[in-house]
Specification:
Shape: globular
Number of helices: 9
Largest sheet: none
Number of domains: 1
Helix content: over 70%
Strand content: under 5%
Structural class: mainly alpha
Radius of gyration: 23 Å
Number of strands: 0
Order of helices and strands: HHHHHHHHH
Length: about 220
């Protein structure tokens, strides 16, 4: 008896083999419809910073470096919001699983309110301490790059509350089993980001735009 036949017999004796069809159905009918929109939504969130860098790439390498530095710090803050977003998803899903709708609503509401307040405080604090933050993360970058990074950071911090609301709201919806609306929201935000930022940076209809700062 060859190795292939032995392995086949061993696998056939496992519990998984007897239930393989039900597992396959569960994966394709239950898990995949939830996982694919979540993957695409997360990709949209990550693309926000990439698109900002791409849009300023024609202004110059200093502008690209400035946006890259500021966005590297912004992603740390976004990761914090994403962690709370994940916690909200778990609590809402568990509460709805135990048919405790009141707790699910309370968890979503408290997360939204708390993180909006935290985002505002973070925005104010980072705006005030922006120069020190850029000095730490920029290292030996030129003063021009540091200045551009500081301007971009101090502008983009005021988007933290909106980012927190979008992420926490998406987490609550995912916990309720709805992954399509968060995907549509984040995808729509990316499209609006491209359209509005392009106009603000390069201008339109005779208006010359704001240049580098329009990327924020």
């Amino acid at each position: 008896m060859n190795l292939h036949a032995v392995l086949r017999q061993r696998v056939a004796k496992t519990r998984w083999y007897a239930k393989r069809k039900s597992y396959r159905v569960l994966f394709w009918r239950e898990i995949t419809p939830l996982a694919v929109p979540i993957f695409m939504e997360n990709a949209c969130v990550l693309l926000m910073g990439v698109l900002s860098t791409f849009l300023v790439s024609w202004i110059g390498k200093e502008a690209m470096a400035g946006v890259g530095l500021a966005d590297s710090f912004n992603m740390v803050i976004i990761s914090f919001f994403a962690a709370v977003d994940l916690g909200t998803t778990v609590v809402v899903a568990f509460s709805l699983g135990t048919r405790d709708r009141r707790k699910a609503r309370a968890a979503a509401r408290q997360s939204l309110v708390l993180m909006t307040v935290v985002a505002l405080l973070l925005a104010a604090g980072i705006h005030l301490a922006g120069e020190q933050i850029i000095d730490v993360i920029a290292g030996d970058a030129t003063s021009e790059v540091k200045g551009l990074a500081l301007s971009y950071l101090q502008t983009t911090v005021w988007s933290y509350p909106a980012a927190a609301i979008a992420l926490i709201g998406s987490g609550a919806l995912r916990g309720a089993g709805n992954t399509k609306i968060p995907l549509l929201v984040n995808g729509g935000m990316n499209i609006l980001n491209i359209m509005i930022s392009s106009v603000l940076i390069y201008g339109a209809l005779g208006w010359h735009g704001l240049g580098f700062i329009g990327a924020g």
